[in-house]
Design goal:
Layout lengths: L1 E2 L2 E2 L5 H15 L3 H14 L4 H14 L2 H13 L8 H12 L3 H11 L16 E6 L6 E9 L2 E4 L14 E4 L6 E6 L6 E15 L5 E8 L2 H13 L3 E4 H4 E4 L1 H4 L2 E3 L11 E4 L19 E7 L2 H14 L4 E8 L2
Parallel strand pairs: 3-8, 7-12, 11-13
Antiparallel strand pairs: 1-2, 3-4, 4-5, 4-13, 5-6, 6-8, 7-8, 9-14, 9-15, 10-14
Helix pairs in contact: 1-2, 2-3, 3-4, 3-5, 4-5, 5-6
Length: 329
Amino acid sequence: MRIFGRVRHRPSATWRQATDRAFTLIGDGRYEDAGALLTRAADMEPWLSESWYNLALLHKFRHDWEQARTAGLRAVALLERAPGAPDWWNVGIAASALQDWPLARRAWQAYGLRPDSGAGPVRMELGSAAVRLSPEGEAEVVWGRRLDPARIEVLSIPLPSSGRRWGEVVLHDGAPNGERATTDGAGSRKAVSVYPVFDEIELWAPSPVPTWLVLLEAATAADRDALERLAADAGFAAEDWSSSVRLLCRTCSESRMPTDDGSADSRDPHDHGQPGHPGHLSHRSAGALWVSERECGVAAPASLVRGLLDSWVADSPDTRDWRDLEEVC
């Protein structure tokens, strides 16, 4: 087969050895050494799209988006496959990181998706998903809204250890790494919805809204829910971490996990990943087992947060109180 006047052959044994060795080095985090091998492989087989796809992948791991875009474009120029090739997905991620929206739209369309036709950031109705923040460190899975195939807006309030805030937009990888299943309805009408968990690559847009930790005295779950509604009505968020966070080992986190532990409080938790055995980070309780003292995360400006909490207490002073407000992220 001739490509641009050259006869294309199958990759040589030397190319395969260099590539295999490079990916072993990538697995060990030795990106510089892997880059030298993949560059050598591309010099050996410049007419092979996989040579440039592998380089684009390496640059993605290194967050070198200019180089990832360049190598990715060389890879797709040599493609012989139908739409849906992962080469285009990597180009879309690099273009989104660089805010090269014309290229991002071209990449998603070539992959087989239908991006909007605007001129600014890509907007697509992709629904909800979960994203694993800091996947190489103290990982935490939170819920969010997908803005496009590579970006998700965080809608949970992350724990302060993640270094992330409510409302931030993170760039994420294309292949899901786990699932979360939710159950809606009851009896014969019970339906299971499954959502992918994507791994964060990097922060794409920070949030100016700080995260606060506060201790609540909420006599009932309805009192707790009232604070969450009050914060949402103000355009911000509150989340009862005592109910919404659970501790999972890495293996469980990267599998399909139900979002409910079977208690009457069927709120969707996000997960704080740890290397140990699964268990709740804090208590979850409902009904007769309800514990009035709750650790709550609040995402709101400093000028608003105390007034928000005071308004919540004023609506039912006999069943509500708060103390020990602290900005944690």
